[in-house]
Design brief:
13% strand; 20 helices; alpha/beta; 601 residues; elongated; 14 strands
């Protein structure tokens, strides 16, 4: 069901685009994003907990100012869950501590805003004082721009540790002493090009070019020979080197020791950090659901004890955001255990049967996770599971055909559904012969009606129009169809669910839309006419020549596509020349000209 309803991943591309998560996820923290996905994958069954979430969402949906301020504040909070784990595992550096500090310091402002809210999920235990002390400790110790490594120093602020400050002072004073030494040695030797330098391999040295080697004092000890210069060391420079290098090493060791002490303090408070992270994630999720509900005009669902599902003017949350070129048409659905338990939904191809089925399942799922739903009004009952049998998939690596997979999914539903479940069946039996498929679909519908003596709420979309006869023998079966309007040899999809069945699918016209060659379409229409005239008994004698096929009438199924010439004639008949302005007349003429191009093509 998670896959078929495309909750987390697009079933065709595997991407997030076109999924329910892509529509409802406007979280601003990594923690909130993970928790929202968790709520979506594991919706609740506890009405009290669901109602608390709905109360919280409704409160911040109405209070836009607080919601906006909180969402802005949450954007500055790092991933506390992963930071806490990283620090506890000993895999952090000083920048992770700084990120933790910045996040903790944002919390007082967030807490102040949350104090204006009354819903239970916004309440937090008073454990933040220790965390503020921890933030102050990190702020006083760790530099704002520490290096990535923690072993070479440069982590700790001056003034935090007296011993460390002394070692830093030695290193700082050493640079001045070297400059003074260079000046003194130049004056003593008369070599103006003399340099006192340092590198990590050879330490401190005095460098003199080879042109002045005759002026080198006797107490200079050669240390390294270069192409154009010689490097020397003196007793005074050796003593300084030992002092400074020892100070640098001690400084790095001391800084690492201080860093570990602070990290130990963080580890002691990790349970509080994780608790705070859970609160931030929950807050982000609730604010997110309120934001989505506000932006998309969702309503609060009501949970009833009578066991019915009533969704008035329901919409598909994903399709309504992605649809282009037409307005999404909402539909009203009622499912109960008395009169409307199994809805047999028939109608033309592409009319929107699958959309209606899926949107009911998604609305029910959203309600159970504590979210508002895309509808004008919604009252639902607690549902233990949502089962889906949709699409056409195979598993060739396991030797399973499309029909076998379909039957396995159906078997899973029949063996595990309960009276509190919702079953979505989008075609059954299409992978085998017509009569076999119809028989299976009929038997499955009867089984679901009689399951456990009470039946199970089911939405059953099918092209087997014969299934509408079930309503005559099974009292809780009702027939619905996706309405179409037939006008001047044109069919218009109204996308509206209406009571009653239908017996036309317009599958041949859909094949034409997909690009099936014209001769094939004409031949299919002829065969369909023969089948209908012979009550389903197609015989070899029904074969006709290509010429007959080309000359046959196309009245077997109405055309989905109007001819441009007919459209032009109709438009000319509707215009009122006496009331048109010159500009309107020119624009209208240009429109007719474009239609005329279609005629010529």
């Amino acid at each position: 069901s998670c896959r078929n309803l495309e909750l987390l991943a697009n079933i065709r591309t595997g991407s997030r685009r076109g999924t329910l998560l892509s529509v409802i996820d406007r979280t601003v923290t990594a923690m909130g994003g993970r928790m929202l996905k968790e709520w979506l994958r594991y919706p609740g069954l506890d009405v009290q907990e669901i109602e608390m979430r709905l109360d919280a969402v409704e409160e911040v949906k109405k209070n836009q100012h607080v919601r906006k301020s909180l969402r802005e504040g949450l954007k500055s909070i790092y991933d506390l869950e992963r930071l806490g784990s990283k620090i506890t595992m000993g895999q952090c550096n000083a920048r992770d501590l700084v990120a933790l500090k910045r996040s903790l310091m944002m919390f007082p402002a967030i807490k102040s805003l949350v104090s204006q809210l009354n819903a239970a999920p916004y309440q937090l235990e008073e454990n933040d004082n220790h965390l503020m002390e921890l933030a102050a400790l990190i702020d006083g110790a760790i530099r704002e721009d520490p290096p990535l490594t923690v072993l070479e120093g440069g982590l700790i602020k001056s003034g935090f540790d007296e011993d460390l400050d002394k070692l830093v002072q030695i290193s700082r004073d050493g640079k001045g002493w070297l400059a003074q030494l260079e000046v003194r040695e130049r004056e003593a030797t008369g070599i103006n090009a003399l340099k006192v330098r340092y590198n990590r391999v050879f330490g401190y040295y005095i460098e003199i070019t080879k042109t002045r080697l005759s002026d080198v004092p006797a107490h200079y000890v050669r240390k390294q020979t270069l192409v154009n210069a010689e490097r020397y060391i003196t007793d005074e420079l050796k003593s300084f080197e030992a002092k400074v290098l020892n100070a640098e090493e001690r400084r790095a060791d001391l800084e690492y020791e201080i860093f570990n002490r602070i990290r130990s303090e963080v580890i002691k408070k990790n349970s509080d950090i994780q608790q705070l992270a859970q609160f931030i994630a929950r807050l982000d999720c609730l604010l997110n659901l309120a934001e989505v509900a506000d932006q998309n005009d969702y309503c609060r669902p009501h949970f009833n004890r009578e066991g019915y599902i009533y969704i008035e003017d329901g919409r598909h949350p994903v399709i309504e955001k992605m649809i282009v070129g037409e307005r999404f048409v909402p539909n009203t659905i009622r499912l109960d255990n008395d009169d409307n338990q199994i809805l047999i939904i028939t109608g033309p191809n592409m009319a929107g049967k699958s959309t209606v089925l899926r949107q009911v399942a998604l609305q029910l799922l959203l309600a159970h996770m504590g979210s508002f739903v895309p509808a004008g009004k919604a009252s639902v009952c607690i549902t233990d599971r949502i089962f889906t049998r949709v699409g056409a998939l195979d598993n060739l690596s396991q030797g399973q055909s499309t029909y076998m997979v379909e039957m396995q999914e159906t078997a899973n539903i029949l063996n595990n559904a309960t009276g509190r479940s919702l079953v979505i069946l989008d075609e059954i039996g299409r992978g085998t012969s017509t009569f076999d498929g119809l028989s299976i679909a009929w038997a499955v519908a009867e089984y679901l009606h009689d399951l456990h003596g009470t039946g199970v709420k089911t939405l059953f979309a099918t092209h087997y129009h014969e299934l509408t006869e079930l309503a005559q023998t099974k009292r809780r079966v009702k027939n619905y169809n996706i309405a179409v309007k037939e006008w001047n040899d044109e069919i218009i999809f109204l996308r509206k669910l209406a009571e009653g069945g239908t017996n036309r699918s317009y599958g041949i016209q859909v094949a034409r839309l997909a690009g099936i060659p014209g001769n094939v379409i004409k031949r299919a229409k002829k065969i369909l006419a023969n089948v209908e005239n012979s009550a389903g008994n197609l015989k070899p004698s029904a074969s006709v020549s290509t010429e007959e096929s080309n000359s046959m009438s196309e009245a077997v199924q109405m055309n989905l596509f109007r001819k441009p010439r007919d459209t032009i004639v109709e438009k000319l008949g509707r215009i009122d020349v006496a009331t048109m302005t010159p500009l309107e007349a020119l624009n209208y003429l240009d429109e007719l000209k474009e239609l005329a191009k279609d005629v010529s093509n």
